[in-house]
Design brief:
Length: 91
């Protein structure tokens, strides 16, 4: 089953949203706290076990029709740390 990362200040603002996104296997990430936080350790463990994690690399909520550049750093750094076979697709 796949997992996804979601901004805690958007997806987990109240009890209803927390349950909704939690049941959808969305892991809360505190934006601005960097890659060294418990939620990133959790998804890295899932990846190391062959799991599937969705990462939305725009790094922000896109409220306009303009496209933003993709931030590859966090995903690539975590991917390169481990030599296990994984599939990394930049879309």
């Amino acid at each position: 089953m796949r997992w996804a990362l979601g901004a805690s200040e958007i997806c987990f603002t109240n009890n209803f949203y927390a349950k909704f996104f939690g049941y959808g296997r969305v892991v809360p990430v505190v934006r601005g706290d960097g890659v060294y936080q418990p939620s990133m350790d959790f998804v890295l463990t899932k990846l190391n076990k062959g799991g599937w994690v969705h990462v939305f690399p725009e790094g922000t909520v896109l409220n306009t029709s303009n496209y933003l550049y993709i931030v590859h750093g966090a995903v690539n750094n975590e991917y390169k740390k481990n030599n296990k076979r994984k599939c990394l697709m930049h879309i």
